[in-house]
Amino acid sequence: MNGDRFSLNNLPNWMRGRFDDAQRFLMLCVCAGVLCGLVGVSFHLAITTVFDGLFGLYANLGIWAYPAMVLSPAFAGLIVGLMIRYVSPTASGSGIPQTKAAYYQNFGVIKTSEACWRFIIGTISVGMGNSLGREGPTVHICSAFSSKLGRLFGLGKLRVQAMVPVGMGAGISAAFNAPISAITFVFEELFDNNFSSKALGGILIAVVVAAVVERSLLGEHSALHATREIFETSWWMLLCLALGPTAGLLGHLFTSLLLSLRERFKQWQQFPSWMKPAIGGLSVGLMGITVWHFSGGLNDGHHGVFSIGYEDLSSALNGRLAWQVLLLLLVGKFVATAVCYASGASGGIFAPVLFIGSMLGGLFGMIAVNTFGLDPSVAAAAALLGTGAFFAAVIRCPLTSVLIIFEMTQNYSLILPLMIGNFLAYLISVKLRQIPIYDALLLQDGISLKKLPAYRGEQDWRNLPISTIMTHDSRTILGSLTAEANMERIIADGYKHHGYPVIQSESEPTLLGVITHHEIEEMIADNDSSLIDEWIAEHKIISVYPDDSIRDVANTLVIKDVLQAPVVSRKDTTKLLGIVTLHDIARQQNAIEESMERD
After folding, report:
1. What is the DSSP string of 253-290?
2. Is residue 456 classed exposed, middle or buried when 0-12, 13-18 and 19+ CB atoms within 10 A define those classes?
3. Which helix (H) or strand (E) segment is 499 a member of?
4. Per the structure, how many domains does the chain have?
5. What is the CATH number of the domain that holds 497?
6. How far apart are CA 165 and CA 148, in angstroms?
7. Does residue 556 sit within a domain?
């Protein structure tokens, strides 16, 4: 009876009584599109308003503009660090890795409180000058609200999970005004190119609605104000043959630098975690003010290193920047973004990647214009080519990298050299680093999204080797340290696990055994100052091999009454390859059974 009575409080039951799960899902996709469009526009306006207001004020301070610009991102980093540490730990970084983890490991459940805090923290971080973007956070926020819609209106668990790619696509569509690219990005980044016609329908509805909302509020416009000149096929387009490989190499360097610095920041014990984003912000301020000073300073300086940098990005895409300015902005944004993101600040790398690629392409174009006496419009065209190539190298979504440049600039005449350059950049970056940047960030945090191969008829998944589901990048305890010193490493790292493999030291990664978090706490409570390697010597190692079947490993864990075991090499049992837990096996069993139910 309650399902027949309409009221706002009874709306989920009322809908459940009149529409089946698939119908409610499609209706909620429309709602998600509207909501995500509003969120995307609001986030964009919030960041733009804060940044334009602050840096417009700084420009009128005369000589005092220098310290103001240096300290603004540092102060933002301090606020952000405190809020991430004490209010919302998931607001660190871009939000895309967190979205992927929630989709694969938590059935798409993302708390709305995470979205609200990320909106606030992201506005402070990027709006006050940190060298990051808004697109990644927009994806996380929109995915959270979309997931909440599914739970609020009583969708099944798998439908709730399916609301995450709906929100993800709608977020990209609203952020970039690029609905086609939003769809391809979801399939390339979230689904890993596994096409699903069922998913496509809901995503298509949401991205179209989100784009309509965005254009209704902000008007018909291109996300990037690039040159609209029509380019005919010419020999200078062969620049893509040099630009693509260069973007691939530079993209690999950018990814390596960011990941290396992030690992160092995580291991840095001299400062508390909440202070590290302030250090990253100070680095942005120093780099940004240096570029601003040498590109014109108080007269006509360029502050594209700060925040998103769309003004200088648009100038490069229209061929209005000299090669010296392009080089300054390229180096400044490259270093500032890597340091800022690595420090744990809140914001994405989408916009900085587009910015760096544009400066790289523009630099190639200006060199060609000055060397061969070409039309200045060639510099603008080369900037577009560089934008796509660097995006393909870093983000690793080759189809999206082509479509997104076309949609954001509405210029189709460069599609052939764009495709060639992007393909070369993508090939080189994949060859140099197999794991894409967002997955690598998750692995640094001890999160693996590795999935079992698809179920094949009579083949029993339990006979597959444990290497298909084990965590390769496991968190370790150092036997050369005490329990208290290791606990400090765990706290600084920010990720607590039930158990940890014990290795001798970072320089000598010989496996000694496994210790649980509870056992470390007990040693600290007993004031046990002995080294971990002394304690572990009394305990037998229970390990497994990578080619052991999932069934055998599960039996070993149950019989030995342990929750996890290190995976070691058969040739050298002291060589740690990874770790597997009963939770990993149970999660994969659930995933296989649900996949079979869907089929």
Report:
1. HHHHHHHHHHHHHHH--SS-GGGHHHHHHHHHHHHHHH
2. exposed
3. strand 499-503
4. 3
5. 3.10.580.10
6. 13
7. yes
Do 481 and 439 fall within a single domain? no
Three-class DSSP category at 445: coil
Neighbouring C-beta atoms of residue 478, cutoff 10 Å? 21
Q: List the structure tokens of 488.
A: 């400090």
Q: What span, in angstroms and rounded, lies between the C-alpha atoms of 578 and 2?
A: 52
Is 451 part of a structural domain of the chain? no
Question: 72 CB contacts (<8 Å, ≥6 apart)?
Answer: 54, 55, 58, 128, 129, 285, 306
Phi, psi of 543 (to 5 degrees): -125, 165
Q: Which residue, chain included where needed, has tokens 């980044």?
A: 189
User: What secondary structure letter does DSSP report for 196?
Assistant: -
Last residue of a domain, one of 160, 189, 218: 218
Q: 346-377 b/e with 16+ CB inside 10 Å = b?
A: bbbbbbbbbbbbbbbbbbbbbebbeeeebeee
Query: How many Cα neighbours within 13 Å face the side chain of 346?
Result: 35
* Cα-Cα-Cα-Cα dihedral sign, residues 404, 410, 414, 416: positive
**Domain annotation covers residue 519:** yes
Instruction: Indicate the helix (H) or strand (E) that contains 17.
Output: helix 11-18
User: Helix axis angle, 239-267 relative to 415-432, nearest 10°?
Assistant: 40
Beta strands in 177-246 (DSSP E): none
**Of the candidates 381, 425, 404, the residue with the CA atom closest to the CA atom of residue 235:** 381
User: What integer pLDDT is reported at residue 594 of this predicted model?
Assistant: 56
Domain span at residue 18 reads 2-218
DSSP 188: I
Nearest to 556 by CA among 463, 578, 564: 564
Q: Is residue 204 part of a domain?
A: yes
Residues 184 and 138 in one domain: yes
Same domain, 240 and 205: no
Separation between Cα atoms, residue 558 and residue 289, nearest integer Å: 59
pLDDT tens digits along 227-259: 667 777 788 899 999 999 999 999 999 999 999
Answer positive or negative: Cα dihedral of 289, 292, 297, 302: negative
Per-residue pLDDT at 283: 96
Q: How many CA atoms lie within 13 A of 550 on its CB side?
A: 19
CATH code at 405?
1.10.3080.10
Count CA atoms within 13 Å of residue 463 on its CB side: 5
Q: In this structure, what are the phi and psi dihedrals at residue 575, rounded to the nearest 5 degrees?
A: -95, 115
Residues 506 and 543 in one domain: yes
Minimum mean pLDDT range among 152-156, 261-265, 325-329: 152-156
Are residue 188 and residue 251 in the same domain, yes or no?
no
Q: Are 275 and 451 in contact (CB under 8 A)?
A: no
Answer yes or no: are the C-beta atoms of 171 and 138 closer than 8 Å: yes
Q: Give the dihedral of Cα atoms 352, 356, 357, 362; nearest 10 deg.
A: 140
CB 509 within 8 A of CB 576: yes
Residues 424, 340, single domain; the answer is yes
Instruction: Look up tokens 């342990």; give the residue.
Output: 562
Q: What is the pLDDT of residues 413-451, one digit of tens each?
A: 888 999 999 999 999 999 999 889 998 898 888 777 655
Clarify whether residues 345 and 393 are in a common domain: yes
